[in-house]
Design goal:
Blueprint: E1 8-22, E2 37-48, E3 54-67, E4 70-86, H1 90-119, H2 132-152
Length: 155
């Protein structure tokens, strides 16, 4: 196989696309000693760029903390990267965009969330490692079920 046909993967740029912090009940929330309930949501998306073989992948992490019925804080980090991916079949490309790229971005998102929490006056929230392969497989299974349901549904 010639070098032109070999699959290639490269990181062109990793950057923080968006960063948001809200502390709607400050300063009173800092006086509350109850333990907050923390909810973490992670989402990733990919889109091709104008230049062939380049893709932007964005890993969005949303962390919400509530004490009783009050929001202590809301943090959203959109960690992004531009990746060069060429000579891959569509199924493999989808897997790289859904597994390898977000796995590459997660440590940067973890650091951004922890740093922002410290600067905001809260203990850092440390994101645990996420197995994007499991999430990708689950998403593929759901898509297959949806396609099967559409194929079997009467018009």
């Amino acid at each position: 196989m010639s070098e032109q046909q070999q699959p290639q993967f490269g990181i062109e740029k990793i950057y923080l696309k968006d960063l948001s912090l809200e502390i709607p009940n400050a300063p009173q929330i800092f006086l509350d000693r109850d333990t907050p309930q923390i909810e973490i949501n992670i989402h990733n998306g990919a889109s091709p760029l104008e230049q062939p073989g380049l893709y932007e992948v964005v890993l969005t992490v949303t962390v919400t903390a509530k004490i009783k019925d009050k929001t202590a804080f809301l943090v959203e980090v959109a960690q992004a990267g531009i990746f060069q991916i060429v000579n891959l079949p569509p199924q493999e490309l989808d897997a790289v965009l859904g597994v390898l790229c977000p796995s590459t971005l997660q440590p940067y998102a973890r650091e951004a969330v922890a740093s922002l929490m410290t600067r905001a006056g809260f203990p850092p929230v440390v994101l645990q490692h996420m197995n994007f392969d499991v999430a990708y497989q689950e998403r593929m299974r759901q898509l297959q079920q949806e396609q099967a349901a559409k194929a079997g549904a009467p018009n």
